[in-house]
Amino acid sequence: MFGIGVPELVLILIIGLIVFGPGKLPEMGRTLGKGIREFRKASNALSQAINAPENQPQQPAAPAPQPQQPAAAPQESAAPAAKPAAEAKPSAPAYQAPTQESVRQQIAEAQAKKEPAGKENKEA
């Protein structure tokens, strides 16, 4: 893999044993193993997040119907009845993350705007 054979590996282990001692060497090996394991977990999670298909945001559920008001105030109940119909329209989310397709469209539009301007300068 790195051009390190068995003799070189044994030499490195012997030097490490001499420098760090028999008590510290297993602890360093465990720490190194944990670090490599965490790095692999993080890289796998990142690659899965990049390759995972994006789910479309779901529309919020319609608001629950409000209980009817008593018939004692018929004039007041007519005005509030118009408001829930206007409020029932689902609103767009405040922020929607860009998708690959939307970014490609933006790049294509930007290039299309630059091309006509560049052709006019070359012709003049």
Strand content: under 5%
Counting helices, strands and paired strands, the structural category is mainly alpha
Uncertain spans: none
Specify the biggest β-sheet: none
Molecular shape: elongated
Could you report the average pLDDT, rounded to the nearest whole number? 75
Please tally the helical runs, counting DSSP H or I stretches of 4 or more residues.
Answer: 3
Would you kindly provide a written description of the structure presented here, covering whatever features stand out?
The chain contains 3 helices and no strands. With 124 residues, it is mainly alpha-helical. The longest helix is centred in the first third of the chain and has 46 residues, at 6-51.
Give the SSE layout.
Blueprint: H1 6-51, H2 74-87, H3 100-123
Pick out its properties.
elongated; 124 residues; 0% strand; mainly alpha
Question: Can you summarize this structure?
Answer:
The protein is built from 3 helices and no strands. It is mainly alpha-helical. The longest helix has 46 residues.
